[in-house]
Design brief:
Blueprint: H1 11-51, H2 58-65, H3 69-104, E1 113-115, H4 124-127, H5 148-160, H6 170-183, E2 191-195, H7 204-209, E3 214-219, H8 222-234, E4 240-243, E5 256-262, H9 270-283, E6 284-294, H10 303-315, H11 321-325, H12 329-336, E7 344-349, E8 355-362
Parallel strand pairs: 1-4, 2-3, 2-5, 3-4, 5-6
Antiparallel strand pairs: 6-8, 7-8
Length: 363
Amino acid sequence: MNHTMIPQANHDELARQNFVKSFRNYLFGKMRNDLKLVYQETVKPQFEKENQRSPKDRYEIRREMQQQPSYKWYSSCKRITQEMMWESVITTVERQLPNLVECAKDREKPLGTLTLNPELKIPTYQTAVDIHCMPGGYNSEYTQDDVAAGAIYDLGVYVAMRNPKSLRDVRGQTVIHKFLKQQYPNFQPGKILDMGCTVGANTLPYVDAYPNAEVYGIDLAPAILRYSHARAESLGKRVHFSQQNAEKTNFPDESFDLVVSHILLHEIPVPAIRNVFRESYRLLAPGGIMIHQDARLFRHLDLYTAFIYDEETTNNNEPFWSAMRDLDLVAVAREAGFSRDSLINTLLEQSNGMQSFIIVGSK
């Protein structure tokens, strides 16, 4: 694999993880395609015959699809594969956890820094459920100087990705090279903040893209941040990680030239999203840029795809996924202080063939 902190699977663990990968590929390939045919050829025509119209929203599609055995089977398999994925990597992490904890301890001359705050209150919205069905969620700690949550998350994403050689940094790379470098070729930020950085995968590309900048990453979870710091150090990247709530940080006003996040917004409730936008505005220096990246919103999707997307909320412990995708983020940004003329919301093509959504604001 690609950095020294990621846990190494033995023969049997790797076989199990490869099975999960294959199962997921089959599920999101053939099974999902077959399910769409069931909707197009059976469910939708029957609905139109009975109602003299097409389904008006994703909720009507869900009510009809929930009666179909093929959807019940697909939905069950989707949940099972998610749980199997985490189980397959937890075994690997548990076996190596003492070594990972030791490896994560600071070197003599670390490049970056790590600042934890044991007094920080973790919001209930992050502790009430195991996000993504990851056992214990992001904020669990099992031992002193724990890094388990970070290692589980990083290895789990590796298993879920179709490109195992990747550093899982496609979102950060896309924001930089498909937007910032193209739209702002002369932009040279002095300080950059990544909100909700988790293991720092999408934070590190900013170190390479803007080598003269100071790069900061914040998250709520201490075990994730210990892992993030060690991961960055092992890759030779200087990042300053700290345990903070993106709704209200301890940085002074106008501290940053660039404030970004990558798939943070769908992990938090609407009131927290509003706070994050307000905090982004407060932290930006004059001329600074805010970019929040996430998956496509419901308005970008046809109704059937929106129904499939909605499964993340109904079946994958993503309680805020759908509410965020219904939100008018331009209005949220304006309420936070950004002028309408400074706002851009658009889709970007990622190198993996998927699209992502960004909302951009300038101060």
